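ARCHIVE CARD
Drawer: 12
Card no.: 0347
Subject: one protein chain, sequence and derived structure
Cross-reference: see card 0346
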Amino acid sequence: MSEAIKLTPEDIQIIKTDMDEAIKLVKHYAVQYEGQEHYDLLGASCVMSATNTVDTVIGSAQYLDGAFLMPDEIHVERLVDWFIKNKDFECNRAILTFYFANYIKRKINALYRSINKDELATTLTIIGSKEATKEFKKQCRKRKKLGVKIIRQ
């Protein structure tokens, strides 16, 4: 297997979208994920790489020079495009989209639960610069003011 390309801050900007669009896409695709059946079709190593990719996008500001996205800013279709182009896996695009959407939905819900419990998103940790942590807390406060609700299907 050849070495896969890593995410860059520029990739993050391409994957970024507004909250409404991101949540609309997550709701559309996540409901189509069929758990173990789709997991088996993707394969454990593909799923692990996909999971790590999402976790990097939302939590590794240090690795990405301060860049990160809140889970509700990820354009799932663009993330799938990036993954297929840059990772060395043979996988079904639709099933991968369903998996990404389902996993991102869980991340959004964990964030929103922690915001609504005034835990300031303790379930997500941003590793990186002081500026990235300040931005993360600012984004959490913004969402608290919006009165975010968990995503239900």
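Annotation on reverse: The first helix runs from residue 9 to 15. The mean pLDDT is 88.
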